[in-house]
């Protein structure tokens, strides 16, 4: 796992370089605007609180204390920033650069470069497909909150109904290796056992 984390860490600057070759989409522009306005409001409220600590709690405007507006501004700022860190080299126009070469550099670290992307990395469809692999922090937070609600349902309702199938799969696809222990047979890329399995072949090629 540490090797994977190291490769992913090396891929982040390359990913930023590739995405910088495209102008921001509408959502990115809106998110930056919201983050800028929210940060300005936060700065004003912080400056006021430095002069008088009790102002945020005692002063109300339109039925809410200033601390409430501070909280809303903070949430809005985090939402805007969740669409990606600011890139000082970002240009509102397409930057000079070879998108194909940038993607090749990324794939050297991620070991993922579908055939459909090759020769098409300058297209927005490919960029969007690439971005789908890196969901925003807000999206991840939503899924984390949703998992708290759905996990008890899966464990108590859905999973027991699939217990037999799970046990049969484990029994059929478990391989015991000396000095290693029990592993999934798919992890051994046993093509003689499974034949020309498309997903296993793709995994073998990408991790090769």
TrEMBL record:
Any transmembrane segments, and where?
29-51, 66-84
This chain belongs to the protein called Autophagy-related protein 9
Protein purpose: Phospholipid scramblase involved in autophagy. Cycles between the preautophagosomal structure/phagophore assembly site (PAS) and the cytoplasmic vesicle pool and supplies membrane for the growing autophagosome. Lipid scramblase activity plays a key role in preautophagosomal structure/phagophore assembly by distributing the phospholipids that arrive through ATG2 from the cytoplasmic to the luminal leaflet of the bilayer, thereby driving autophagosomal membrane expansion.
Q: Which family does it belong to?
A: Belongs to the ATG9 family.
Looking up InterPro entries in the UniProt record yields:
Autophagy-rel_prot_9 (IPR007241)
In the bilayer, the protein is annotated as: Multi-pass membrane protein
Query: Where is this protein found?
Result: Preautophagosomal structure membrane
Could you list this entry's UniProt keywords, alphabetically sorted: Autophagy, Lipid transport, Membrane, Transmembrane, Transmembrane helix, Transport
Query: Where is this chain primarily localised?
Result: membrane
Q: Name one Pfam family in it.
A: ATG9
Q: Name one GO biological process term.
A: reticulophagy
């Amino acid at each position: 796992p540490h090797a994977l984390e190291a490769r992913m860490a090396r891929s982040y600057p390359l990913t930023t370089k590739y995405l910088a070759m495209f102008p921001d989409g509408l959502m990115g522009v809106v998110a930056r605007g919201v983050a800028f306005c929210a940060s300005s409001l936060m700065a004003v409220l912080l400056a006021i609180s430095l002069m008088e600590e009790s102002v945020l709690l005692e002063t109300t405007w339109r039925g809410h204390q200033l601390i409430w507006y501070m909280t809303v501004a903070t949430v809005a700022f985090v939402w805007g920033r969740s669409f990606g860190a600011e890139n000082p080299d970002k240009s509102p126009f397409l930057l000079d650069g070879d998108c194909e070469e940038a993607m090749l550099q990324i794939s050297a670290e991620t070991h993922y470069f579908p055939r459909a992307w090759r020769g098409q990395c300058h297209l927005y469809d490919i960029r969007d497909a690439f971005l789908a692999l890196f969901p925003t922090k807000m999206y991840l937070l939503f899924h984390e909150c949703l998992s708290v609600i759905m996990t008890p349902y899966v464990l108590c309702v859905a999973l027991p109904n699939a217990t037999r199938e799970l046990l049969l799969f484990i029994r059929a696809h478990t391989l015991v290796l000396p000095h290693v222990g029990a592993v999934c047979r798919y992890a051994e890329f046993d093509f003689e056992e499974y034949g020309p399995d498309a997903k296993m072949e793709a995994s073998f090629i990408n991790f090769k």
